[in-house]
Design a protein that fits this description.
heterodimer; A: 312 residues; mainly alpha; Na+/H+ antiporter like fold; 77% helix; 0% strand; B: 310 residues; 13 helices
Protein backbone atom coordinates (compact mmCIF):
# COMPACT_ATOMS: atom_id res chain seq x y z
CA UNK A 1 0.00 0.00 0.00
CA UNK A 2 2.92 2.33 0.67
CA UNK A 3 3.86 2.30 -3.00
CA UNK A 4 0.35 3.30 -3.98
CA UNK A 5 0.45 6.18 -1.53
CA UNK A 6 3.83 7.37 -2.80
CA UNK A 7 2.53 7.31 -6.36
CA UNK A 8 -0.60 9.18 -5.31
CA UNK A 9 1.65 11.70 -3.55
CA UNK A 10 3.54 12.23 -6.79
CA UNK A 11 0.27 13.01 -8.52
CA UNK A 12 -0.70 15.66 -5.98
CA UNK A 13 1.24 18.52 -7.66
CA UNK A 14 -0.47 17.74 -10.96
CA UNK A 15 -3.86 17.84 -9.28
CA UNK A 16 -2.91 21.04 -7.49
CA UNK A 17 -2.28 22.57 -10.92
CA UNK A 18 -5.69 21.36 -12.12
CA UNK A 19 -7.25 23.04 -9.09
CA UNK A 20 -5.30 26.25 -9.81
CA UNK A 21 -6.58 26.15 -13.39
CA UNK A 22 -10.09 25.70 -12.04
CA UNK A 23 -9.66 28.70 -9.74
CA UNK A 24 -8.11 30.77 -12.54
CA UNK A 25 -11.01 29.96 -14.85
CA UNK A 26 -13.70 30.49 -12.27
CA UNK A 27 -12.47 33.48 -10.27
CA UNK A 28 -9.64 35.23 -12.12
CA UNK A 29 -11.52 35.22 -15.38
CA UNK A 30 -8.61 33.63 -17.19
CA UNK A 31 -9.62 33.02 -20.77
CA UNK A 32 -9.70 29.33 -21.65
CA UNK A 33 -9.28 30.11 -25.34
CA UNK A 34 -6.00 31.88 -24.60
CA UNK A 35 -4.59 28.91 -22.72
CA UNK A 36 -5.83 26.50 -25.38
CA UNK A 37 -4.31 28.48 -28.24
CA UNK A 38 -0.96 28.71 -26.47
CA UNK A 39 -1.06 25.02 -25.63
CA UNK A 40 -2.04 23.69 -29.04
CA UNK A 41 -0.17 26.04 -31.36
CA UNK A 42 2.95 26.99 -29.45
CA UNK A 43 3.84 24.94 -26.41
CA UNK A 44 2.79 21.46 -27.48
CA UNK A 45 4.50 21.53 -30.89
CA UNK A 46 7.78 22.76 -29.39
CA UNK A 47 7.79 20.18 -26.61
CA UNK A 48 6.81 17.46 -29.07
CA UNK A 49 9.52 18.43 -31.50
CA UNK A 50 12.19 18.39 -28.81
CA UNK A 51 11.29 14.97 -27.47
CA UNK A 52 10.96 13.35 -30.87
CA UNK A 53 14.19 14.96 -32.07
CA UNK A 54 16.06 13.56 -29.08
CA UNK A 55 14.58 10.08 -28.90
CA UNK A 56 16.31 6.96 -30.09
CA UNK A 57 14.23 6.28 -33.14
CA UNK A 58 13.60 2.71 -34.29
CA UNK A 59 11.53 1.78 -37.36
CA UNK A 60 9.48 -0.68 -35.29
CA UNK A 61 8.01 2.26 -33.35
CA UNK A 62 5.88 3.06 -36.38
CA UNK A 63 3.69 0.14 -35.28
CA UNK A 64 2.94 1.80 -31.91
CA UNK A 65 0.44 4.46 -33.00
CA UNK A 66 -1.27 1.85 -35.14
CA UNK A 67 -1.56 -0.61 -32.26
CA UNK A 68 -2.85 2.15 -29.97
CA UNK A 69 -5.33 3.30 -32.61
CA UNK A 70 -6.67 -0.22 -33.14
CA UNK A 71 -6.95 -0.73 -29.39
CA UNK A 72 -9.06 2.35 -28.70
CA UNK A 73 -11.11 1.79 -31.84
CA UNK A 74 -11.99 -1.71 -30.62
CA UNK A 75 -13.04 -0.40 -27.21
CA UNK A 76 -15.06 2.32 -28.88
CA UNK A 77 -17.05 -0.06 -31.07
CA UNK A 78 -17.52 -2.75 -28.44
CA UNK A 79 -18.87 -0.10 -26.05
CA UNK A 80 -21.00 1.40 -28.79
CA UNK A 81 -22.62 -1.98 -29.36
CA UNK A 82 -23.08 -2.52 -25.62
CA UNK A 83 -24.44 0.99 -25.17
CA UNK A 84 -26.96 0.54 -27.94
CA UNK A 85 -28.35 -2.45 -26.08
CA UNK A 86 -28.58 -0.61 -22.81
CA UNK A 87 -29.71 2.80 -24.02
CA UNK A 88 -30.70 2.45 -27.62
CA UNK A 89 -30.11 6.19 -28.17
CA UNK A 90 -27.27 8.66 -28.62
CA UNK A 91 -26.08 8.09 -25.05
CA UNK A 92 -24.45 4.98 -26.46
CA UNK A 93 -22.27 7.16 -28.69
CA UNK A 94 -21.23 9.37 -25.80
CA UNK A 95 -20.42 6.34 -23.68
CA UNK A 96 -18.35 4.80 -26.45
CA UNK A 97 -16.22 7.83 -27.21
CA UNK A 98 -15.73 8.63 -23.50
CA UNK A 99 -14.47 5.13 -22.81
CA UNK A 100 -12.12 5.09 -25.75
CA UNK A 101 -10.51 8.51 -25.74
CA UNK A 102 -8.16 9.46 -22.95
CA UNK A 103 -6.50 12.69 -21.93
CA UNK A 104 -3.18 11.38 -23.21
CA UNK A 105 -1.85 14.87 -23.96
CA UNK A 106 -2.25 17.44 -21.21
CA UNK A 107 -2.69 14.80 -18.52
CA UNK A 108 -0.78 11.89 -20.00
CA UNK A 109 2.42 13.64 -20.97
CA UNK A 110 3.19 15.02 -17.50
CA UNK A 111 2.38 11.56 -16.17
CA UNK A 112 4.78 10.03 -18.67
CA UNK A 113 7.41 12.60 -17.64
CA UNK A 114 6.97 11.44 -14.07
CA UNK A 115 7.09 7.71 -14.80
CA UNK A 116 9.50 7.28 -17.69
CA UNK A 117 13.19 7.95 -18.18
CA UNK A 118 13.58 11.17 -20.19
CA UNK A 119 14.70 9.43 -23.40
CA UNK A 120 11.51 7.37 -23.59
CA UNK A 121 9.08 10.27 -23.47
CA UNK A 122 9.56 10.77 -27.22
CA UNK A 123 8.31 7.24 -27.81
CA UNK A 124 5.23 8.03 -25.72
CA UNK A 125 4.52 11.09 -27.87
CA UNK A 126 5.03 9.06 -31.00
CA UNK A 127 2.67 6.28 -29.88
CA UNK A 128 0.12 8.92 -28.93
CA UNK A 129 -0.26 9.84 -32.61
CA UNK A 130 -2.74 6.97 -32.61
CA UNK A 131 -5.04 9.14 -30.47
CA UNK A 132 -4.92 11.97 -33.02
CA UNK A 133 -5.73 9.51 -35.77
CA UNK A 134 -8.65 8.27 -33.67
CA UNK A 135 -9.93 11.79 -33.15
CA UNK A 136 -9.72 12.61 -36.84
CA UNK A 137 -11.45 9.41 -37.97
CA UNK A 138 -13.64 7.50 -35.50
CA UNK A 139 -14.59 10.39 -33.21
CA UNK A 140 -15.34 12.54 -36.20
CA UNK A 141 -17.29 9.70 -37.81
CA UNK A 142 -19.44 9.27 -34.73
CA UNK A 143 -19.83 13.02 -34.31
CA UNK A 144 -20.94 13.43 -37.90
CA UNK A 145 -23.34 10.49 -37.40
CA UNK A 146 -22.09 8.44 -40.26
CA UNK A 147 -21.57 11.17 -42.81
CA UNK A 148 -17.94 10.27 -43.20
CA UNK A 149 -15.56 11.23 -45.94
CA UNK A 150 -11.92 10.31 -46.13
CA UNK A 151 -11.09 13.73 -47.52
CA UNK A 152 -12.56 15.65 -44.59
CA UNK A 153 -10.98 13.23 -42.19
CA UNK A 154 -7.58 13.93 -43.71
CA UNK A 155 -8.20 17.67 -43.55
CA UNK A 156 -9.01 17.26 -39.85
CA UNK A 157 -5.84 15.30 -39.32
CA UNK A 158 -3.81 17.93 -41.16
CA UNK A 159 -5.07 20.56 -38.71
CA UNK A 160 -3.24 19.07 -35.73
CA UNK A 161 -0.01 21.06 -35.30
CA UNK A 162 1.42 18.07 -33.42
CA UNK A 163 1.57 16.06 -36.67
CA UNK A 164 3.98 18.59 -38.17
CA UNK A 165 5.99 18.79 -34.97
CA UNK A 166 6.44 15.01 -34.94
CA UNK A 167 7.34 14.96 -38.64
CA UNK A 168 9.88 17.75 -38.14
CA UNK A 169 11.20 16.00 -35.05
CA UNK A 170 11.68 12.71 -36.88
CA UNK A 171 13.41 14.49 -39.77
CA UNK A 172 15.70 16.34 -37.39
CA UNK A 173 16.34 13.14 -35.47
CA UNK A 174 17.31 11.22 -38.59
CA UNK A 175 19.52 14.06 -39.81
CA UNK A 176 21.71 13.37 -36.79
CA UNK A 177 22.15 17.04 -35.86
CA UNK A 178 22.36 17.55 -32.12
CA UNK A 179 20.64 20.27 -30.12
CA UNK A 180 22.70 23.11 -28.66
CA UNK A 181 22.74 23.53 -24.87
CA UNK A 182 20.87 26.79 -24.95
CA UNK A 183 18.15 25.26 -27.14
CA UNK A 184 17.78 22.44 -24.64
CA UNK A 185 17.57 24.98 -21.78
CA UNK A 186 14.70 26.86 -23.40
CA UNK A 187 13.06 23.66 -24.50
CA UNK A 188 13.08 22.69 -20.81
CA UNK A 189 11.31 25.98 -20.05
CA UNK A 190 8.66 25.03 -22.60
CA UNK A 191 8.35 21.64 -20.96
CA UNK A 192 7.64 23.42 -17.68
CA UNK A 193 5.07 25.58 -19.43
CA UNK A 194 3.46 22.47 -20.89
CA UNK A 195 2.99 20.83 -17.52
CA UNK A 196 1.72 24.02 -15.89
CA UNK A 197 -0.49 25.30 -18.71
CA UNK A 198 -1.71 21.83 -19.77
CA UNK A 199 -2.92 20.94 -16.29
CA UNK A 200 -4.48 24.37 -15.91
CA UNK A 201 -6.33 23.89 -19.20
CA UNK A 202 -7.91 20.76 -17.74
CA UNK A 203 -8.91 22.72 -14.63
CA UNK A 204 -10.16 25.74 -16.57
CA UNK A 205 -12.26 23.46 -18.79
CA UNK A 206 -13.76 21.79 -15.73
CA UNK A 207 -14.60 25.22 -14.32
CA UNK A 208 -16.98 25.72 -17.24
CA UNK A 209 -19.24 22.85 -16.15
CA UNK A 210 -22.38 24.75 -15.29
CA UNK A 211 -24.44 22.04 -13.71
CA UNK A 212 -23.16 18.75 -12.39
CA UNK A 213 -25.10 15.73 -13.54
CA UNK A 214 -24.98 12.56 -11.51
CA UNK A 215 -25.89 9.54 -13.65
CA UNK A 216 -24.74 6.41 -11.80
CA UNK A 217 -25.49 3.90 -14.54
CA UNK A 218 -23.91 5.94 -17.30
CA UNK A 219 -20.84 6.68 -15.20
CA UNK A 220 -20.28 3.10 -14.13
CA UNK A 221 -20.64 1.80 -17.67
CA UNK A 222 -18.27 4.44 -19.03
CA UNK A 223 -15.75 3.83 -16.25
CA UNK A 224 -15.91 0.10 -16.87
CA UNK A 225 -14.82 0.73 -20.44
CA UNK A 226 -12.30 3.43 -19.61
CA UNK A 227 -10.65 2.12 -16.47
CA UNK A 228 -11.10 -1.65 -16.79
CA UNK A 229 -11.57 -2.81 -20.34
CA UNK A 230 -9.06 -0.52 -22.07
CA UNK A 231 -6.21 -1.21 -19.62
CA UNK A 232 -7.01 -4.93 -19.77
CA UNK A 233 -6.75 -4.98 -23.54
CA UNK A 234 -3.41 -3.24 -23.34
CA UNK A 235 -2.22 -5.65 -20.65
CA UNK A 236 -3.30 -8.54 -22.89
CA UNK A 237 -1.22 -7.20 -25.77
CA UNK A 238 1.74 -6.54 -23.48
CA UNK A 239 1.64 -10.10 -22.17
CA UNK A 240 1.38 -11.40 -25.70
CA UNK A 241 4.50 -9.49 -26.63
CA UNK A 242 6.30 -10.56 -23.47
CA UNK A 243 5.62 -14.24 -23.94
CA UNK A 244 5.52 -14.77 -27.69
CA UNK A 245 6.32 -11.86 -29.98
CA UNK A 246 9.25 -10.14 -28.18
CA UNK A 247 9.02 -7.09 -30.40
CA UNK A 248 9.32 -4.30 -27.86
CA UNK A 249 11.18 -3.19 -24.75
CA UNK A 250 9.78 -3.19 -21.24
CA UNK A 251 9.66 0.65 -21.45
CA UNK A 252 7.47 0.48 -24.55
CA UNK A 253 5.11 -1.83 -22.68
CA UNK A 254 4.91 0.67 -19.89
CA UNK A 255 4.21 3.45 -22.40
CA UNK A 256 1.31 1.51 -23.88
CA UNK A 257 -0.03 0.96 -20.38
CA UNK A 258 0.24 4.63 -19.39
CA UNK A 259 -1.67 5.61 -22.53
CA UNK A 260 -4.63 3.54 -21.36
CA UNK A 261 -4.97 4.60 -17.72
CA UNK A 262 -5.47 8.38 -18.07
CA UNK A 263 -8.91 9.95 -17.48
CA UNK A 264 -11.37 10.86 -20.23
CA UNK A 265 -10.10 13.42 -22.72
CA UNK A 266 -11.33 17.00 -22.37
CA UNK A 267 -12.05 17.14 -26.10
CA UNK A 268 -15.04 14.87 -25.49
CA UNK A 269 -16.86 17.84 -23.96
CA UNK A 270 -16.41 19.78 -27.20
CA UNK A 271 -17.51 16.77 -29.24
CA UNK A 272 -20.59 16.35 -27.07
CA UNK A 273 -21.58 19.95 -27.82
CA UNK A 274 -20.95 19.41 -31.52
CA UNK A 275 -22.97 16.19 -31.56
CA UNK A 276 -25.71 17.69 -29.44
CA UNK A 277 -25.06 14.83 -27.05
CA UNK A 278 -25.89 15.94 -23.51
CA UNK A 279 -22.92 18.28 -23.02
CA UNK A 280 -23.48 18.60 -19.26
CA UNK A 281 -23.45 14.87 -18.79
CA UNK A 282 -20.26 14.64 -20.81
CA UNK A 283 -18.54 17.42 -18.87
CA UNK A 284 -19.59 15.98 -15.51
CA UNK A 285 -18.37 12.52 -16.44
CA UNK A 286 -15.00 13.97 -17.48
CA UNK A 287 -14.74 15.69 -14.12
CA UNK A 288 -15.59 12.50 -12.22
CA UNK A 289 -13.10 10.49 -14.24
CA UNK A 290 -10.35 13.05 -13.60
CA UNK A 291 -10.96 12.86 -9.87
CA UNK A 292 -11.26 9.07 -9.98
CA UNK A 293 -7.91 8.84 -11.78
CA UNK A 294 -6.18 10.17 -8.67
CA UNK A 295 -6.97 6.79 -7.08
CA UNK A 296 -7.06 4.55 -10.12
CA UNK A 297 -3.71 5.58 -11.61
CA UNK A 298 -1.54 4.72 -8.59
CA UNK A 299 -3.52 1.54 -8.13
CA UNK A 300 -3.19 0.49 -11.77
CA UNK A 301 0.50 1.26 -11.78
CA UNK A 302 0.98 -0.72 -8.60
CA UNK A 303 -0.73 -3.74 -10.14
CA UNK A 304 1.23 -3.28 -13.35
CA UNK A 305 4.63 -3.07 -11.69
CA UNK A 306 3.98 -6.05 -9.45
CA UNK A 307 2.14 -8.47 -11.69
CA UNK A 308 2.69 -7.52 -15.31
CA UNK A 309 6.02 -5.78 -15.77
CA UNK A 310 9.04 -7.97 -16.28
CA UNK A 311 12.10 -6.14 -15.11
CA UNK A 312 15.01 -7.02 -17.35
CA UNK B 1 34.83 36.34 -24.55
CA UNK B 2 33.33 32.98 -23.74
CA UNK B 3 30.86 34.35 -21.25
CA UNK B 4 29.69 36.98 -23.75
CA UNK B 5 28.85 34.10 -26.03
CA UNK B 6 26.84 32.56 -23.19
CA UNK B 7 25.00 35.83 -22.55
CA UNK B 8 24.22 36.40 -26.22
CA UNK B 9 23.12 32.79 -26.66
CA UNK B 10 20.80 33.31 -23.73
CA UNK B 11 19.44 36.58 -25.06
CA UNK B 12 18.56 35.35 -28.56
CA UNK B 13 15.85 32.92 -27.34
CA UNK B 14 14.37 35.71 -25.24
CA UNK B 15 13.92 37.82 -28.38
CA UNK B 16 12.48 34.85 -30.23
CA UNK B 17 9.95 34.55 -27.40
CA UNK B 18 8.97 38.20 -27.86
CA UNK B 19 8.39 37.35 -31.53
CA UNK B 20 6.36 34.26 -30.64
CA UNK B 21 4.30 36.42 -28.28
CA UNK B 22 3.67 38.89 -31.07
CA UNK B 23 2.44 36.10 -33.36
CA UNK B 24 0.29 34.64 -30.58
CA UNK B 25 -1.28 38.02 -29.86
CA UNK B 26 -1.83 38.86 -33.49
CA UNK B 27 -3.00 35.59 -35.01
CA UNK B 28 -4.09 33.34 -32.16
CA UNK B 29 -6.09 36.00 -30.37
CA UNK B 30 -4.29 35.35 -27.13
CA UNK B 31 -5.49 37.53 -24.30
CA UNK B 32 -2.84 39.57 -22.47
CA UNK B 33 -4.84 39.90 -19.28
CA UNK B 34 -5.17 36.15 -18.84
CA UNK B 35 -1.44 35.60 -19.25
CA UNK B 36 -0.47 38.37 -16.86
CA UNK B 37 -2.89 37.02 -14.25
CA UNK B 38 -1.43 33.55 -14.53
CA UNK B 39 2.06 34.97 -14.09
CA UNK B 40 1.14 37.22 -11.19
CA UNK B 41 -1.19 34.96 -9.24
CA UNK B 42 -0.16 31.44 -10.13
CA UNK B 43 3.47 31.30 -11.22
CA UNK B 44 5.24 34.07 -9.35
CA UNK B 45 4.16 33.09 -5.81
CA UNK B 46 5.53 29.53 -5.88
CA UNK B 47 8.70 30.65 -7.67
CA UNK B 48 9.34 33.27 -4.99
CA UNK B 49 8.34 30.89 -2.19
CA UNK B 50 10.70 28.18 -3.40
CA UNK B 51 13.50 30.69 -3.89
CA UNK B 52 13.10 31.96 -0.33
CA UNK B 53 13.57 28.47 1.11
CA UNK B 54 16.88 28.25 -0.74
CA UNK B 55 18.73 31.33 0.53
CA UNK B 56 20.82 31.20 3.67
CA UNK B 57 19.30 33.88 5.81
CA UNK B 58 21.73 36.37 7.19
CA UNK B 59 20.57 39.58 8.80
CA UNK B 60 22.52 41.49 6.17
CA UNK B 61 20.34 40.04 3.41
CA UNK B 62 17.27 41.76 4.81
CA UNK B 63 18.67 45.08 3.59
CA UNK B 64 18.49 43.93 -0.06
CA UNK B 65 14.79 44.52 -0.72
CA UNK B 66 15.08 47.72 1.32
CA UNK B 67 17.83 48.94 -0.98
CA UNK B 68 15.75 48.33 -4.11
CA UNK B 69 12.65 49.75 -2.44
CA UNK B 70 14.33 52.99 -1.40
CA UNK B 71 16.25 53.28 -4.67
CA UNK B 72 13.12 52.95 -6.74
CA UNK B 73 11.38 55.52 -4.56
CA UNK B 74 14.16 58.03 -4.98
CA UNK B 75 14.53 57.48 -8.73
CA UNK B 76 10.83 57.47 -9.44
CA UNK B 77 9.97 60.57 -7.46
CA UNK B 78 12.93 62.52 -8.84
CA UNK B 79 11.98 61.44 -12.35
CA UNK B 80 8.41 62.56 -11.77
CA UNK B 81 9.44 65.98 -10.50
CA UNK B 82 11.97 66.65 -13.22
CA UNK B 83 9.77 65.32 -16.03
CA UNK B 84 6.82 67.41 -14.87
CA UNK B 85 8.80 70.53 -15.65
CA UNK B 86 9.35 69.38 -19.22
CA UNK B 87 6.04 67.71 -20.08
CA UNK B 88 2.62 68.81 -18.90
CA UNK B 89 0.47 66.19 -20.63
CA UNK B 90 0.86 63.08 -18.51
CA UNK B 91 4.09 62.04 -20.18
CA UNK B 92 5.81 62.70 -16.88
CA UNK B 93 3.55 60.19 -15.13
CA UNK B 94 4.18 57.69 -17.84
CA UNK B 95 7.95 58.08 -17.53
CA UNK B 96 7.95 57.95 -13.76
CA UNK B 97 5.79 54.84 -13.62
CA UNK B 98 8.25 53.11 -15.94
CA UNK B 99 11.17 54.21 -13.78
CA UNK B 100 9.98 52.27 -10.74
CA UNK B 101 11.54 48.97 -11.63
CA UNK B 102 12.67 46.81 -14.52
CA UNK B 103 11.71 43.61 -16.28
CA UNK B 104 14.01 41.97 -13.79
CA UNK B 105 12.13 38.73 -13.19
CA UNK B 106 10.86 37.58 -16.58
CA UNK B 107 13.87 38.87 -18.48
CA UNK B 108 16.45 38.55 -15.74
CA UNK B 109 15.62 35.17 -14.24
CA UNK B 110 16.84 33.02 -17.16
CA UNK B 111 20.01 35.10 -17.50
CA UNK B 112 20.76 35.01 -13.79
CA UNK B 113 19.97 31.27 -13.65
CA UNK B 114 22.41 30.68 -16.49
CA UNK B 115 25.17 32.82 -14.99
CA UNK B 116 24.75 32.37 -11.23
CA UNK B 117 22.79 29.14 -10.74
CA UNK B 118 19.70 28.54 -8.58
CA UNK B 119 21.23 29.95 -5.40
CA UNK B 120 22.23 33.22 -7.02
CA UNK B 121 18.81 33.38 -8.65
CA UNK B 122 17.15 33.03 -5.25
CA UNK B 123 19.05 35.99 -3.82
CA UNK B 124 18.30 37.90 -6.99
CA UNK B 125 14.56 37.29 -6.60
CA UNK B 126 14.68 38.35 -2.96
CA UNK B 127 16.44 41.55 -3.97
CA UNK B 128 13.65 42.17 -6.49
CA UNK B 129 11.01 42.27 -3.83
CA UNK B 130 11.47 46.01 -3.37
CA UNK B 131 10.85 46.64 -7.05
CA UNK B 132 7.83 44.33 -7.06
CA UNK B 133 6.33 46.18 -4.10
CA UNK B 134 6.75 49.56 -5.74
CA UNK B 135 5.54 48.23 -9.06
CA UNK B 136 2.24 47.19 -7.50
CA UNK B 137 1.82 50.39 -5.54
CA UNK B 138 3.90 53.39 -6.57
CA UNK B 139 4.01 52.71 -10.31
CA UNK B 140 0.30 51.99 -10.35
CA UNK B 141 -0.48 55.09 -8.32
CA UNK B 142 1.56 57.39 -10.52
CA UNK B 143 0.23 56.00 -13.77
CA UNK B 144 -3.36 56.40 -12.51
CA UNK B 145 -2.72 60.16 -12.09
CA UNK B 146 -4.77 60.73 -8.97
CA UNK B 147 -7.63 58.47 -9.97
CA UNK B 148 -6.69 56.32 -7.00
CA UNK B 149 -5.97 57.43 -3.50
CA UNK B 150 -2.88 56.35 -1.62
CA UNK B 151 -5.08 54.04 0.43
CA UNK B 152 -6.46 52.34 -2.66
CA UNK B 153 -2.96 51.80 -3.97
CA UNK B 154 -1.85 50.33 -0.65
CA UNK B 155 -4.87 48.05 -0.64
CA UNK B 156 -3.83 46.87 -4.06
CA UNK B 157 -0.38 46.21 -2.69
CA UNK B 158 -1.84 44.02 0.04
CA UNK B 159 -3.37 41.90 -2.71
CA UNK B 160 0.07 41.19 -4.18
CA UNK B 161 0.48 37.44 -3.75
CA UNK B 162 4.28 37.58 -4.05
CA UNK B 163 4.45 39.43 -0.74
CA UNK B 164 2.80 36.57 1.12
CA UNK B 165 4.85 34.00 -0.75
CA UNK B 166 8.06 35.68 0.36
CA UNK B 167 6.97 35.85 4.00
CA UNK B 168 5.84 32.21 3.94
CA UNK B 169 9.05 31.16 2.21
CA UNK B 170 11.16 32.90 4.84
CA UNK B 171 9.14 31.24 7.61
CA UNK B 172 9.74 27.84 5.96
CA UNK B 173 13.39 28.67 5.64
CA UNK B 174 13.63 29.64 9.30
CA UNK B 175 11.81 26.44 10.30
CA UNK B 176 14.28 24.43 8.26
CA UNK B 177 11.74 23.25 5.67
CA UNK B 178 13.41 22.82 2.28
CA UNK B 179 12.11 21.67 -1.08
CA UNK B 180 12.11 17.95 -1.74
CA UNK B 181 13.06 16.67 -5.22
CA UNK B 182 9.46 16.80 -6.43
CA UNK B 183 9.07 20.40 -5.28
CA UNK B 184 12.40 21.23 -6.96
CA UNK B 185 11.12 19.75 -10.21
CA UNK B 186 7.91 21.77 -10.09
CA UNK B 187 9.86 24.87 -9.15
CA UNK B 188 11.83 24.38 -12.37
CA UNK B 189 8.59 23.95 -14.31
CA UNK B 190 7.09 27.11 -12.83
CA UNK B 191 10.27 29.14 -13.42
CA UNK B 192 10.35 27.88 -17.01
CA UNK B 193 6.72 28.77 -17.59
CA UNK B 194 7.33 32.20 -16.07
CA UNK B 195 10.15 32.93 -18.48
CA UNK B 196 8.18 31.76 -21.51
CA UNK B 197 4.96 33.59 -20.64
CA UNK B 198 6.70 36.66 -19.23
CA UNK B 199 8.70 37.26 -22.40
CA UNK B 200 5.75 36.48 -24.63
CA UNK B 201 3.81 39.17 -22.77
CA UNK B 202 6.03 41.86 -24.33
CA UNK B 203 5.23 40.58 -27.82
CA UNK B 204 1.55 40.16 -27.04
CA UNK B 205 1.26 43.69 -25.66
CA UNK B 206 2.97 45.12 -28.74
CA UNK B 207 0.68 43.11 -31.02
CA UNK B 208 -2.40 44.65 -29.44
CA UNK B 209 -1.25 48.21 -30.10
CA UNK B 210 -2.22 50.18 -33.17
CA UNK B 211 1.39 50.58 -34.12
CA UNK B 212 4.70 51.71 -32.75
CA UNK B 213 5.35 55.30 -31.97
CA UNK B 214 8.55 56.89 -30.79
CA UNK B 215 9.10 60.26 -29.21
CA UNK B 216 12.80 60.70 -28.92
CA UNK B 217 12.69 63.05 -25.94
CA UNK B 218 10.59 60.67 -23.92
CA UNK B 219 12.63 57.65 -25.01
CA UNK B 220 15.83 59.49 -24.10
CA UNK B 221 14.46 60.23 -20.64
CA UNK B 222 13.48 56.59 -20.13
CA UNK B 223 16.88 55.32 -21.23
CA UNK B 224 18.59 57.90 -19.03
CA UNK B 225 16.66 56.65 -16.03
CA UNK B 226 17.07 53.00 -16.88
CA UNK B 227 20.69 52.90 -17.99
CA UNK B 228 22.21 55.82 -16.09
CA UNK B 229 20.16 56.61 -12.97
CA UNK B 230 19.62 52.99 -11.89
CA UNK B 231 23.21 51.82 -12.43
CA UNK B 232 24.56 54.95 -10.71
CA UNK B 233 22.18 54.47 -7.79
CA UNK B 234 23.02 50.83 -7.19
CA UNK B 235 26.67 51.55 -8.01
CA UNK B 236 26.68 54.09 -5.21
CA UNK B 237 25.22 51.49 -2.85
CA UNK B 238 27.97 49.05 -3.82
CA UNK B 239 30.61 51.74 -3.41
CA UNK B 240 29.29 52.64 0.03
CA UNK B 241 29.22 49.02 1.09
CA UNK B 242 32.73 48.28 -0.18
CA UNK B 243 34.18 51.29 1.61
CA UNK B 244 32.11 51.67 4.76
CA UNK B 245 29.54 49.02 5.64
CA UNK B 246 30.84 45.68 4.44
CA UNK B 247 27.44 44.01 4.83
CA UNK B 248 27.18 42.39 1.42
CA UNK B 249 29.38 40.11 -0.64
CA UNK B 250 30.72 39.91 -4.18
CA UNK B 251 27.92 37.71 -5.47
CA UNK B 252 25.37 40.28 -4.30
CA UNK B 253 27.32 43.15 -5.91
CA UNK B 254 27.33 41.22 -9.18
CA UNK B 255 23.58 40.56 -8.95
CA UNK B 256 22.95 44.24 -8.22
CA UNK B 257 24.89 45.30 -11.28
CA UNK B 258 22.93 42.88 -13.48
CA UNK B 259 19.68 44.11 -11.93
CA UNK B 260 20.51 47.74 -12.57
CA UNK B 261 20.84 47.13 -16.32
CA UNK B 262 17.58 45.24 -16.86
CA UNK B 263 15.23 46.61 -19.55
CA UNK B 264 11.85 48.29 -19.06
CA UNK B 265 9.01 46.17 -17.72
CA UNK B 266 6.12 45.01 -19.94
CA UNK B 267 3.71 45.87 -17.14
CA UNK B 268 4.37 49.46 -18.04
CA UNK B 269 2.51 48.90 -21.33
CA UNK B 270 -0.43 47.34 -19.49
CA UNK B 271 -0.65 50.24 -17.03
CA UNK B 272 -0.29 52.73 -19.85
CA UNK B 273 -3.12 51.09 -21.78
CA UNK B 274 -5.31 50.92 -18.71
CA UNK B 275 -4.82 54.61 -17.92
CA UNK B 276 -4.72 56.00 -21.44
CA UNK B 277 -1.11 57.09 -21.08
CA UNK B 278 0.15 56.66 -24.66
CA UNK B 279 0.36 52.85 -24.78
CA UNK B 280 1.90 52.87 -28.28
CA UNK B 281 4.82 54.89 -27.01
CA UNK B 282 5.14 52.67 -23.95
CA UNK B 283 5.14 49.53 -26.12
CA UNK B 284 7.80 50.94 -28.42
CA UNK B 285 9.97 51.94 -25.48
CA UNK B 286 9.73 48.49 -23.88
CA UNK B 287 10.59 46.84 -27.17
CA UNK B 288 13.55 49.13 -27.84
CA UNK B 289 14.94 48.79 -24.35
CA UNK B 290 14.62 44.99 -24.58
CA UNK B 291 16.62 45.13 -27.81
CA UNK B 292 19.14 47.46 -26.19
CA UNK B 293 19.82 44.71 -23.66
CA UNK B 294 22.05 43.05 -26.23
CA UNK B 295 24.46 45.87 -25.36
CA UNK B 296 23.46 46.56 -21.77
CA UNK B 297 23.64 43.05 -20.31
CA UNK B 298 27.08 42.19 -21.72
CA UNK B 299 28.23 45.62 -20.50
CA UNK B 300 26.91 44.80 -17.03
CA UNK B 301 28.88 41.59 -17.15
CA UNK B 302 31.94 43.48 -18.26
CA UNK B 303 31.60 45.71 -15.20
CA UNK B 304 31.25 42.68 -12.93
CA UNK B 305 34.44 41.24 -14.39
CA UNK B 306 36.22 44.58 -14.29
CA UNK B 307 35.60 45.00 -10.59
CA UNK B 308 36.33 41.37 -9.94
CA UNK B 309 32.93 40.58 -8.41
CA UNK B 310 32.39 37.24 -10.15
Amino acid sequence: MDVVLTLAGNLVPLYALIVLGYIAGKFFNVDRQTLGALGIYIIMPIVTFGYVAQMEFRPSYIALPVVFYVMITCVCFIWLAAGKRVYGDSRANLMAISSASGNTGYFGLPLALMLLPEEWVGVYIFANLGALLFEATILYYLAARGRFSVRESLIKLARFPTIYAVAAGVAYNLSGAGMADVVVTYWEYFKGSYVVIGMMIIGAALAKVKRMVWAPRFISLTFAGKFIMLPLISVGLIMLDQSALHLFDAQVHKIMFILTIVPIGANIAAFAVEMDLKPEKAASTILYSTVFALISIPFSLYLYENFIAITP
Amino acid sequence: MDVFGVIMADLVPLYLLIGVGYIAGRYLDVNLHSISRICLYILLPPVFLGAMTRIDIQPSLIVLPLITLVSSYIITLSALNIAKRIWQDGTANSIASAAVNANAVYFGLPIVLALFGPHGASIYLFMNLGGAINNASLSYYISARGRFTVQQSLKRLMKLPVLYAVVLGLVFNYAGITMNPIAEKYWDYAAGALTILGMMMIGISVSKLGGLSIRWGELGALFLIKYVAWPVMLGAVIFADVHWFGLLNHEIYALMIILSFMPLFANYVAYAAENNLFPERAGSAVLLSSLFSTVAIPFAYFLIKYFGFN
